[in-house]
Write a structure and sequence with these properties.
Number of domains: 1
CATH class: Mainly Alpha
Largest sheet: none
Strand content: under 5%
Shape: globular
Length: 85
């Protein structure tokens, strides 16, 4: 997996990203793979989106693989600073 150290993710959020990178993208399938409830999964995904600026799983994958840069709406935000927007 590419370096996404500019994103300050919790271990649980990193597990979600790793599972998505392995191809688990459907909600139920992803939740079952991670052994977490759908409510927990939704909360983790929302936290990841807020931190990265990704609007969906496609953008998230493109970011962590280095195919697109940090989104324009995050440029200038310090590493680890939360993004709400």
């Amino acid at each position: 997996m590419a370096n996404y150290s500019w994103i300050s993710l919790t271990p649980a959020e990193e597990r979600v990203v790793r599972a998505v990178m392995k191809g688990y993208v459907k909600g139920k399938e992803l939740g079952d793979h991670l052994k977490i409830t759908q409510g927990s999964l939704v909360a983790l995904q929302q936290n990841i989106y807020n931190k990265t600026g990704a609007r969906n799983l496609v953008e998230l994958v493109l970011m962590v693989t280095g195919r697109i840069e940090q989104p324009p709406n995050l440029k200038g935000i310090e590493k680890g600073q939360k993004h709400y927007g």
